[in-house]
Amino acid sequence: QEQLAESGGGLVQAGGSLRLSCAASGRTFSTFPMGWFRQAPGKEREFVAATSWNGGRTLYGDSVKGRFTISRDNAQSTLSLQMNSLKPEDTAVYYCAADRHYYGMGSSRPEEYDYWGQGTQVTVSS
């Protein structure tokens, strides 16, 4: 059973940066595509970024393209999200997720993901 745990959230001023991490437990993490999603109060869960099982393919939501970078280290079983040029509208709870699709290429659809972390709060002040 995969378990995911996010860290790295916090309060940052607009224009600043944060790096989120997701630690995965389970033997099959390295074969699953992974993604980041976020949810702000009163809004639906939004796709942020995804990566294929080996990191060779990445996808980004339109609102974060050019500012966020997703990466993974299969040897360390970690997924990261580097967030630069943060805006107040980036404020949300950020979740990492794993898709139980061996050697998959990643997806922007939350319904494709089988495992979810508990989330980490990111707050960007103006």
3D structure, described in words:
It is built from no helices and eleven strands. With 126 residues, the chain is mainly β. Strands 2, 4, 5, 6, 9, 10 and 11 form a seven-stranded mixed β-sheet that branches. A four-stranded antiparallel β-sheet has the order 1-3-8-7, with no helix packed on it. A hairpin with a 6-residue loop joins strand 4 (34-39) and strand 5 (46-51).
Average pLDDT reading: 95
**Backbone CA Rg:** 13 Å
pLDDT < 50 runs, ≥5 residues:
none
* Proportion in β-strands: over 45%
Q: Estimate the global geometry from the Cα principal axes.
A: globular
Query: Could you describe the largest sheet, including whether it forms a barrel?
Result: 7 strands, mixed
What letter string, H or E per element, gives the SSE order?
Answer: EEEEEEEEEEE
In short:
The protein has 126 residues and is mostly beta strands. The protein has no helices and 11 strands.
Provide keyphrases for this structure.
single chain, 126 residues, mainly beta, seven-stranded mixed β-sheet, four-stranded antiparallel β-sheet, 0% helix, globular
List the helices and strands and how they pair.
Blueprint lengths: L2 E5 L2 E4 L4 E8 L8 E6 L6 E6 L6 E3 L7 E6 L4 E6 L8 E7 L16 E2 L3 E6 L1
